[in-house]
Amino acid sequence: MAAFGEVQTPLEQARVVVLPVPYDLSLSFLPGARKGPKAILDASVELELFHAELGIDPSEVGIHAAEEVPWVAGDAAASHALIRDAARRYLELGRFVVALGGDHSITHPLVQAHREAVGAFTVLHIDAHTDLYPEWQGSIYSHASPIYRLVQEGIPVVQVGLRAISRESLALIRAHRIPYFPAHRLHTQGWPLQEILDALGERVYITFDFDALDPSVMPAVGTPLPDGLTYREAANLLTAVFQHKEVVGMDFVELSPNGTFHAEMTAAQLVYHAIGCKALQAGWLQPEHE
Ligand SMILES: [Mn+2]
């Protein structure tokens, strides 16, 4: 039986559902993100459950690792519908859903499910790439396109950590006035955390592409790029967002295991950190220190 952390909490008693989405049929460069969810779950068993920085044991909220969402070979639309339906099922039960990809295309059906279940929010998109391509290799279901699809649907987006920004993407960012915080700005001018928070609405969905992290800390991604975030920068960003916003859901995508176990541990630790932040924000747990 799969679990996130050492303990599998039954769904009835769990506040958090970790939803594995091993879908990577849209990947353009290096496939392998289908192995991401299992790698994160496997690594999570090694986590220290007490989170000293947060002063809580986030696993005490009750974490249920759900069944993997299946996919339909050769049918991206049908696969995305299965992802949307799986997320909606847990959202309708009032659970906080943490999806593990899988490639970044899964964010579109996940955001759809959250919009239907919990209403409006801003999407905080943390990534090396803009994912603003109208289509890629002929498909709107590509992992290069999910943010474009959200923008087209009028969903507010804030982008953080970008390093690969095409001229076309930049034109789109400007045309739609998307608040964006490229890595070169963060690393030369310092983190404008308040500006990022101000750009977000009161309710936020977080989509975290592991290639937002620097390849030196996160080598196990399909499309690595230098000048990425440190683990601490990513953790601080998540902490700040949870402290000031209501986070309604999140996904962590594009881990493509490559035999470097430390990458999987890093991914599991960051997911666990975010679950802990949610536990504090929701008042599910109280910190043991102040
Ligand atoms: Mn990316």
Automatic annotation (TrEMBL):
<dbReference type="InterPro" id="IPR023696">
    <property type="entry name" value="Ureohydrolase_dom_sf"/>
</dbReference>
<dbReference type="GO" id="GO:0033389">
    <property type="term" value="P:putrescine biosynthetic process from arginine, via agmatine"/>
</dbReference>
<dbReference type="Pfam" id="PF00491">
    <property type="entry name" value="Arginase"/>
</dbReference>
<dbReference type="InterPro" id="IPR006035">
    <property type="entry name" value="Ureohydrolase"/>
</dbReference>
<feature type="binding site">
    <location>
        <position position="131"/>
    </location>
    <ligand>
        <name>Mn(2+)</name>
    </ligand>
</feature>
<comment type="similarity">
    <text>Belongs to the arginase family. Agmatinase subfamily.</text>
</comment>
<feature type="binding site">
    <location>
        <position position="129"/>
    </location>
    <ligand>
        <name>Mn(2+)</name>
    </ligand>
</feature>
<feature type="binding site">
    <location>
        <position position="209"/>
    </location>
    <ligand>
        <name>Mn(2+)</name>
    </ligand>
</feature>
<feature type="binding site">
    <location>
        <position position="127"/>
    </location>
    <ligand>
        <name>Mn(2+)</name>
    </ligand>
</feature>
<keyword id="KW-0479">Metal-binding</keyword>
<protein>
    <submittedName>
        <fullName>Agmatinase</fullName>
        <ecNumber>3.5.3.11</ecNumber>
    </submittedName>
</protein>
<dbReference type="InterPro" id="IPR005925">
    <property type="entry name" value="Agmatinase-rel"/>
</dbReference>
<dbReference type="GO" id="GO:0046872">
    <property type="term" value="F:metal ion binding"/>
</dbReference>
<keyword id="KW-0464">Manganese</keyword>
<feature type="binding site">
    <location>
        <position position="211"/>
    </location>
    <ligand>
        <name>Mn(2+)</name>
    </ligand>
</feature>
<dbReference type="GO" id="GO:0008783">
    <property type="term" value="F:agmatinase activity"/>
</dbReference>
<keyword id="KW-0378">Hydrolase</keyword>
<feature type="binding site">
    <location>
        <position position="104"/>
    </location>
    <ligand>
        <name>Mn(2+)</name>
    </ligand>
</feature>
